[in-house]
Amino acid sequence: WTTKHLGSMKYILVTGGVISGIGKGIIASSLGTIMKQHGRRVTSIKIDPYLNIDAGTFSPYEHGEVFVLNDGGEVDLDLGNYERFLDTNLCRDNNITTGKIYQNVIEKERRGDYLGKTVQVVPHVTNEIQRWVEDVANRADADGNVADVCIIELGGTIGDIESMPFVEAFRQFQFHVGKSNFMLFHVSLVPQPSSTGEQKSKPTQHSVRELRGLGLSPDVIVCRSRNPLQEAIQSKTAMFCHVPITHVLAVHDVSSIYKVPILMAEQHIVSIIWEHFQLDPQLLDTVDSEPLRRWTELAECFENVRDTVTICLVGKYTGFNDAYASVIKALQHSALQAKHKLDLQFVGSGDLEAETQSTDPARYHEAWKTVCSAHGILVPGGFGGRGVEGKIAAIQWARCNNKPFLGVCLGLQLAVIEYCRNVLGWKDANTTEVDPDTKHPVVIDMPEISTTQLGGTMRLGQRTTVFVKEDCMARKLYGGVPSVAERHRHRYEVNPDLVDQIEAKGMQFVGHDHEGKRMEILELPQAKHPFYLAVQYHPEFTSRPLRPSPPFLGFIFAACGQLDQLIDVPKAAATQPPIHRMVRDESRSPPAVGVMKVKIASPSRSRNTSEERVEATKSRAGSGPTNGTSSMQAAQAMARRGSNKTLPKRVGSPTKPLKSSRSKAEELGYEILNHNKDSTAEL
């Protein structure tokens, strides 16, 4: 490996000690955010020491969700944190795995690139790691700009045998690029045993000792703790770990991850980095006087909202929140825009099925109680047949009870199956993934996609969706643009041969792929349902804290009863009760974050009597689900009797239509046109 170092690139390596899962990804993302807000262009690399080529075949219970990039790369969810914090788009090469490194080395050996030499971990594997890092760091982005700083996160824990080649590679790398161009942050746990209540620095001391024994000495130690770090522990850590006390950062648990960059900036991390990299101090003079102002406002908004919107996520992997990490973030981004705190309730889809009713009735009724009492229902993506019938039942309940519904990927496919079963009368309608022999294959595998070779064989990455209907809710949410580019990850699709029959019964496929063959977006007319939307792609992957995904934003606003604040809504469709009334207040200072200036005014609420609720349940029974109707109605009644959250009465739309020809989303300043671009413009 003979590549000459270009000299201008600065590298920050983030390692972890004691245990995994202590927040290395958030620390790395926060460092990138701080540098970007201080005028530096930033890129990121995540290193995963496992032998897999990528994360595509992982179970969500192993490493959480599989995050998909624009180029179709299936990567670790930490790259999602990088994209959200930095508001940038990364590529598959920004994720390095041991499998990729060894694959490249073996391919070179087979081609004879090593000229018959004995191929070894040192120097061949370590050289390949260094070459990959430097190549990706110095690669220009879509606008032709090369980053100034590269943040590298080394996954796992120092001392793990699988990460040893990477540690050795960076030991060599620090001399290759020069000490003034390389900085090491070590993130370590400071435990606080409940028996004594005293914080302990010994695990951090041992971790740093092992790291130094491998040839790397940390420049900054980030101490993760449950409570604020005690001064005595900070001094002790500095003394035994051979760093100045100012280089020991205290990062305790906070209520919102948006506070982490602020917490680190308050400990003068910018001046520490600037001094280490020998950067020109005058560069700081060109930075905004409040570089982290938007993050401060975001954190304050998260803290100060008092009104709550309850969303029920009906999924398969509800036992592990990281399995739906991007979905949760997208919901949080949208809830903040609506000035509401998100109350996300997880329901295992299997708990909604008839089998659970017979084996565990209490669990079954509790699950349906959660579904019925939520303000909106979300069915995210997934694979396999387990829990499918429970998801279909939840979708049916949302459709028949005018409950705001959003389906993502598999959620769209199951929405079509539910509609075909209960509206078209195709009782055996199904997906070939679950029932290959069904007489009504509503969802089929795509002919060009392999169903046997699982790794990297799906329809992946950013694809264009074209709106085929001008006056539709989805297009309004995107600001009226003719097409959008969103990220995909699926191997099954709606059967194009049955689309005409389905649309004849009222369901609208308003978005197709650029060839017009694949169904990308479906919705029910707003005259029939206040908000019923499903998409084949994954909009959660492109949601940003200051720029939420349009489908999620519309879903949350509909659940809050405020969809008319975002887009023009027909009065007949405004049947979802507003949780809180929002009115413009032009006399106040600009809001912390959001698409509108608002003040919260709690409307007068009247509790429905039990007789009224029973009567309302009976009046909807005619249009309710046909399969399991009695059990679902019983669960709904139980939810209303047992829930302390009594929803307000349904009311009509309180807002008059805009006179402007522009959409309401555009009037509110939402940056629709640049939704799929690397835009850093203020809202």
Descriptive key words:
alpha/beta, single chain, 22 helices, disordered N terminus, 34% helix, 7-stranded parallel beta sheet, 683 residues
Reported for the largest beta sheet, the result is:
9 strands, mixed
* Order of adjacent strands in the largest pleated sheet: 11-10-12-13-21-20-19-16-17
Number of E-state strands: 23
The N- to C-terminal Cα distance equals 46 Å
- In the predicted model, the low-confidence regions spanning at least 5 consecutive residues are 1-6, 574-632, 638-683
- Coarse morphology: globular
Q: In what range is the share of β-strand residues?
A: 15-25%
User: Helicity range of the residues?
Assistant: 25-40%
Distinct helical segment count:
22
Average of the residue pLDDT scores: 82
Structure description:
It is a single chain. By secondary structure, the chain is α/β, with parallel strands linked by helices. The two termini are 46 Å apart.
Question: Could you give a quick summary of the protein structure above?
Answer:
This protein has 683 residues and is an alpha/beta fold. The protein is built from 22 helices and 23 strands.
Element layout with pairings:
Layout lengths: L9 E7 L7 H14 L4 E7 L11 H4 L3 E2 L5 E2 L2 H9 L8 E3 H14 L9 H17 L11 E6 L9 H14 L4 E8 L12 H12 L6 E6 L5 H11 L6 E5 L7 H6 L3 H9 L15 H12 L3 E8 L9 H13 L3 E8 L5 H6 L1 H13 L2 E4 L8 H13 L4 E4 L1 H13 L7 E2 L9 E5 L13 E9 L5 H5 L5 E8 L1 E3 L4 H5 L4 E6 L5 E5 L8 E4 L14 H10 L21 E3 L15 E3 L8 H11 L8 H14 L21 H4 L16
